[in-house]
Amino acid sequence: MPDLLGAATAADYAAALHDVVDDVASRVATARQPFCGASRRELQALVDAVDLDGTPVGTAGALRETADLYASHAVWFHHPGYAAHLNCPVALPAVGAEAMLAAINTSVDTYDQSTVATLMEQRLVAWTAGRIGFAAGDGVFTSGGTQSNLHALYLAREAALTDAAGARLRGAARRERLGRLRVLATPAGHFSVARSTGLLGLDDDAVVPVGTDAAGRLDPEALSRALVDVERAGDVVMAVVVTAGTTDRGCVDPIVAVADLCDAAGAWLHVDAAYGGGLLVSSSRRHLLDGIERARSVTVDFHKTFFQPVSSSALLVRDPADLARVTWNADYLNPAEESGEPNPDLNLVDRSLQTTRRFDALKLWATLRAVGADGLGAMMDAVCDLAAAVHADLADDPELRLLAPTDLSTVLFRYQPDGVDDARADALVPRVRRVLFESGRALVAKTVVDGRPCLKLTLLNPDATVDDVRGVLDLVRATAHGLLAGEELSTDDAPPCRGNHPRLPARPLLAEPVR
Predict the structure, then answer these.
(1) If the chain, 515 residues long, is cut into consecutive pieces of 10 residues, what is the mean pLDDT of each piece?
(2) What segments bear the compositional bias annotation Low complexity (predicted)?
(3) How far apart (Å, rounded) are the C-alpha atoms in residues 345 and 341?
């Protein structure tokens, strides 16, 4: 077939990829803002206009058309005006490795499909485990932090559903124990923890909220009380989840203190370091992860603070035996008895929730060889240093009010100068964000902290400068000024321009809520 990659089409593959690369490179170099600002209605019309059952246009035509539709309207994470979510610009060697693995299309579920790819992934797992401090740890790459957290809690559930002799509980005994399992986590933990408990068949009240301190970090005293309360209720602590880099505040829970309590209670400790995993290679902030080596499982997202293309995450465990709890044998794939099979213990499907799985580890491999662990650590430190500089910049700002500290690279703030009460400042948050998004000039996020809505910058671009961030904040100010001015006009019974413009609408457009 002419459109399948093979020996006969190798030259066509090279030409097509060169065209794509040249086009994307040009767009990256010339992007003037993070988003074009097209409305959802406009984008929907463009998507609907493509006849997917129409006459084929060939590889070159399809790729040009796709670039016009997708690349022209994509969000560019490398642009300094992007400061919304946990999206990062990506390392060049990883992008090259992405093209390589996509073309070769390896699946790393069994050794006979992947050969050296399995060995390379295992080497990276061992490297990451070593950085954590797991002397003989193991793990597997996943699609992201949500899957890694689900996987960790699955393993914790299976450990909790075994008897004193290590045998799996079955039947009524299993169902009875399942209904008593509890997961302890703070409200600042990732939502995937609560969602995972539902997927794992736990009760609706299985997640026991643990109190936090004023900065949003887990309070060890609150955890101590929660552990006692669960035991007194006759329930079972399936796992305690601490977060090394909360999504909103970018704070790291006190891992050492939590590990002490988990050891005393015999509880499974899971550290969700999806955001803060880059601290493993930091030269100045690695201490924030002190105690992580005492966890039983750890989530790390390489596609956040290791600057890898999506998707690239991993679940690491301190005891390799824990991974065996997920093993499921299939005669056609990984039979339990493999007499005569080469390397029967290297079928990674035995430790993964996925069967077919991309060789995403290749991207991290290439990046480590290109820039080194210290280079990645310097990039992590750069975004954290940038956030610290922005915090200092806003400390005495008369209009933009900081709301919370951070350990990593977030900035939580709201527009609230003197004279703007809480209700008006609350209402401005989503409107400012929406106006900026619809302009395409800057993308910021919004969230709620201590019951108050606020704007959030998530700084994950090591090339961004304080002046770049000041530019985003200036757009926030200008937008808020315009919205407040519109409110004032809308409440003026006799605006000064009424006589000159008799057709001026009763409520100017700026005064309408932005949807």
Answers:
(1) 87 96 97 96 97 95 97 97 97 97 95 94 97 96 96 96 87 92 96 94 95 96 98 96 96 98 97 98 98 98 97 96 82 68 71 92 98 98 98 96 96 96 96 97 96 97 98 97 85 50 37 37
(2) 502-515
(3) 10
Q: Rounded to whole angstroms, how far apart are CA atoms 506 and 511?
A: 10
Task: Give 286: exposed, middle or buried? Use CB within 10 Å, 0-12, 13-18, 19+.
Answer: middle
Cα distance between residue 66 and residue 170, in whole Å? 52
Give me the sign of the Cα torsion angle 344, 346, 350, 353.
negative
Q: Which residue has the tokens 């350990």?
A: 407
pLDDT at 402: 96
Q: What is the pLDDT of residue 338?
A: 55
- Cβ neighbours for 380, distance < 8 A, ≥ 6 positions apart: 278, 279, 281, 282, 285, 305
Q: What's the predicted TM-score (pTM) here?
A: 0.92
**Neighbour tally for 152: CB within 10 Å:** 28
- Whole-angstrom CA distances from 142 to 169, 246, 353 are 28, 20, 8
Amino acid at residue number 309: P
CA 130 – CA 123 distance, rounded (Å): 10
Length of the chain: 515
Structure-block tokens of residue 164: 């004193």
Residue given tokens 């390589």 in the structure block: 100
Concatenate the DSSP letters of all residues of 214-255 into one string: TTS-B-HHHHHHHHHHHHHTT-EEEEEEEEBS-TTT--B--H
Phi first, then psi: what are they for 129, rounded to 5°?
A: -60, -40
Instruction: Calculate the alpha carbon distances from 202 to 159, 182, 240 in Å.
Output: 14, 8, 15
- State how far the Cα of 42 lies from the Cα of 29, in Å rounded to an integer: 25
Cα separation, 211 vs 510, whole angstroms: 41
Spell out the residues 6+ positions from residue 338 whose beta carbon is closer than 8 angstroms to its own. 344
400-404, strands of its sheet edge to edge: 82-83, 443-449, 452-458, 410-415, 400-404
Q: List C-alpha distances in Å: 190 to 27, 145, 186, 379.
A: 34, 9, 9, 24
Give how far Cα 351 sits from Cα of 26, 35, 58, 108, 242, Å: 42, 40, 41, 11, 23
CA distance 476 to 404: 18
Q: What is the rounded distance in angstroms from the CA atom of residue 298 to the CA atom of residue 289?
A: 11
Q: Which residue has the tokens 């060939």?
A: 58
> To which residue do tokens 């020996």 refer?
7
Omega before residue 311 within 30° of 0, cis: yes
